[in-house]
Write a structure and sequence with these properties.
Radius of gyration: 19 Å
Keywords: Isomerase, tRNA processing
Strand content: 25-35%
Number of strands: 10
Function: Formation of pseudouridine at positions 38, 39 and 40 in the anticodon stem and loop of transfer RNAs.
Number of domains: 2
Pfam families: PseudoU_synth_1 (PF01416)
Helix content: 10-25%
InterPro entries: PsdUridine_synth_cat_dom_sf, PsdUridine_synth_TruA, PsdUridine_synth_TruA_a/b_dom, PsdUridine_synth_TruA_C, TruA/RsuA/RluB/E/F_N
CATH topology of the largest domain: Alpha-Beta Plaits
Shape: globular
CATH architecture of the largest domain: 2-Layer Sandwich
Distance between the termini: 27 Å
Number of helices: 6
Domain Pseudouridine synthase I TruA alpha/beta: 7-101, 143-245
Length: 260
């Protein structure tokens, strides 16, 4: 048996999220079906984390065990031949036995993208939240730095959260602006249900001038969902990258020549 990890990108628009659900139409279902067709095995995959309906991934990591002899250099290309066009395997890696994409993940980065043009861009509208008016990006930058460090993020999770603790650590935050596009990156050791989308809804209120940046610490300290802003739309959110400790990270480097 071999333990395999794959780095996967997908457009989540048509799916009910990553994780298998009774009603089907999930990214996990599509990958497992493609693996069965390719290898003849009923393989269950594990993802580094869930993404909700309509949320995308650039660097989702999955893991599974298989008896397939397909060489790693060919595995990604072979599996892509069985996958729908909105799911792409970017690389495949043979891992040490026991590797688990979720259990061994130590940090994740999400990107949230907004476009502020007068009209939506038809070519990017599936991957951007369209905000009709300009946003004060400098104010948003002043607000987001208050998230850094370890906090109880109860104000930034939906009622459906099943986590025992809402304490998480945010390692890095940044906001980049490229013309009408605004990209926010948040890296942490873990995220709560809808956490990034609620953070972004709150930041947009700051960018609109409804709230001052200095209000953010009070929102965090309240540990009360009603004290934060609205939940931003799913289409702007992308699971960007997942980080692993040594020795696992050395096996999960993407060869640029094979980066699809």
């Amino acid at each position: 048996m071999r333990t395999v990890a794959m780095i996967v990108s997908y457009d989540g628009t048509a799916y009910s999220g990553f994780q298998s659900q009774p009603q089907g139409q999930t990214v996990q279902d599509e990958i497992q079906l493609a693996l069965q067709r390719l290898t003849g095995e009923a393989i269950k995959i594990d993802g580094s984390g869930r993404t909700d309906a309509g949320v995308h991934a650039y660097g989702q990591v999955i893991s599974f065990v298989t008896e397939s002899p397909i060489p790693m250099k060919r595995f990604a290309m072979a599996l892509n031949g069985w996958l729908p066009n909105d799911i792409i395997v970017r690389s495949a890696h043979e891992m040490p036995a026991g590797f688990h994409a979720r259990i061994h993940a130590v940090r994740k980065t999400y990107r949230y993208s907004i476009t502020t043009g007068k009209y939506p861009n038809v070519f990017t509208s599936r991957y951007r939240f369209h905000h009709y008016n300009p946003l004060d990006v400098d104010a948003m930058r002043k607000a987001i730095v208050h998230l850094l460090g370890e906090h109880d993020f109860s104000s930034f999770t939906s009622a459906g959260s099943t986590k025992r603790s809402h304490v998480r650590t945010i390692h890095e935050v940044s906001i980049e602006q490229d013309g009408e596009d605004i990209h926010t990156f948040v890296t942490g050791n873990g995220f709560l249900y809808n956490m990034v989308r609620i953070i972004m809804g709150t930041l947009m209120w700051v960018g609109e001038g409804k709230w001052e940046p200095e209000r953010m610490p009070r929102v965090i300290e309240a540990m009360d969902r009603s004290q934060a802003g609205p939940k931003a739309g799913a289409q702007g959110l992308t699971l960007w990258e997942v980080g692993y400790p040594e020795p696992f990270s050395q096996w999960l480097q993407i060869d640029p020549a094979n980066d699809m």
